[in-house]
Structure formats: structure tokens, C-alpha cells
Amino acid sequence: MTTKFVRILVATVFGLSLCALAQTAPAPNTVSNAAVPNAPSAASATAIPNATGTKVGTISIEGAIFGSNEGRRDFDVLTKKLEPKQTELKTMSDEIDGLKKQLTTQGDKMNEDAAATLRKQIESKQKVFDRSVQDAREEAQGQQGEIMQRVLGKMAPVIVKYASENGFGMIIDTSQPWPQGPVVWYGEAVDITQPVIEAYNVKSGVPAPPASAAKPPTAGAAKPGTAPAAKPVVPPATKPPATNPPKQ
């Protein structure tokens, strides 16, 4: 999903995840845990690491989510779930195309009433089809958004931890290509997408899905000459995934 909806979702979920981390951090000038019954120990409290580094890094949040074992697994489940609806829409589309072809090839041979009836039939079926496509698209986007929200909520601390431990003072999301996104160009050395995926796979404990599983959006920027991965959308809303800024 490369829409404004996705960008807003990513920003919101990531921000809420950091807020949750901050809320678990011990507040300054508070009484000790020993004076508060049932208070969590200092070892169990998780604070947001201070951004003391000076490096600027990049990450494809979308790529990290759907490149992780958990994201790929859930993406594959969603893709299979959407297949019956895609088949249904394909059947509806083929039927409408057949009627349109009939009107084009035989319309001049029909009487006025028959031609008018066929046009009304096409118009009616087209309206039903368009509405079905819109409903299916919204359902697909909503369910993909749920996957992103769920995974990113758990991945955010991994991103912050990796960035802090490796001297990064700022991380910029490259999920959207320039000019939609802020990054015109970046080098491979500053991209932390793959290391974050690997760290999150260890944390989640989710095994890699079978090789035959549906391929989600690729992590990081697309490389020249490579085909973009498919996304779980329904026709005719299918759009080619955007190409991220080039790497070195």
C-alpha cells in the first residue's frame, strides 16, 4: 500500500509505539520502587534510548514490515483470503466486457428497444461492479493496515534500539519515493531496513514462510532491473508499487 493512508498509518502507529515506550520509562525524581507496592522493577522498565548518535539513516518501514517473517506470513494469509473476491470481480468484469462487445458488434442490427435494454443492462451491471470493487478495495486496505499496525507496534522498539546502538541520531522512512517522500537519494551503507528485519525475526520467533508464499513488498528501495513485488489489492485498483530512491 503506497497511499496517503499508509503514510498516515505508519506515522501514527510508530508515534504511539514510542509513546508507549516512554510511558514505561521510570520518571525522574520519583520515589523508589521499594516504596511503591507492586511497582515494576527497574530492569523491567523500558526507556527510549537517547539519540546521542550523529548519523542519519534510512529505513523502508513498509519494506521492513512486509519483509519480516511475520509480515510475510500475514500477507500471504491475506492474499489467499482475497483470492475468491478477485475471482468474483474478474467474472463480473468479463460479463460486462462481453455485453459491451455484443453492443458494439450487434448494436446496429438490433431494434431500438433491444439496444436500449442492453445498454441499461450494461449500465446496471457496471454500477454494481464499481461498487463491489470499491468495497473490496476498502476491505483489502483495511486488513493490510491492520497487519501494518500490529507488526509495527512490536517492531518500533527494535528500530529505536538498533538505531541507538549503532550511532544513528535520525532515521528517515523511504517507503515513499521522491517526490512523494522526502529522500531524493541515499546510500546502501545508511539503510537499516534489512538489519531491522533480521533483528525483528529473532525477536518475534516467527519462522520464515515457505518459498511458495506470496511475495510482499520488498524491503528497502527497488533496484534497477528488478520487478516490483505484488501487493494485495483488487482489480481494477491494481497499481504498480512505487520505486524508491536509488541506492549506491
Topology (SSEs and partners):
Elements: H1 4-24, E1 55-59, H2 61-67, H3 69-106, H4 112-165, E2 168-173, H5 193-204
Parallel strand pairs: 1-2
Helix pairs in contact: 1-4, 2-3, 2-4, 2-5, 3-4, 4-5
Would you mind describing this structure in some detail?
With 248 residues, the chain is mainly alpha-helical. Residues 5-13, 19-46 and 218-246 have low confidence and may be disordered. It has a domain at 4-72 and 138-204: 2-Layer Sandwich (Protein Binding, DinI Protein, Chain A). It is built from 5 helices and 2 strands, in the order αβαααβα.
Helix content: 40-55%
The fold-level CATH name of the domain at 4-72 and 138-204 is Protein Binding, DinI Protein, Chain A
Task: Provide the CATH architecture of the domain at 4-72 and 138-204.
Answer: 2-Layer Sandwich
Question: How many helix segments?
Answer: 5
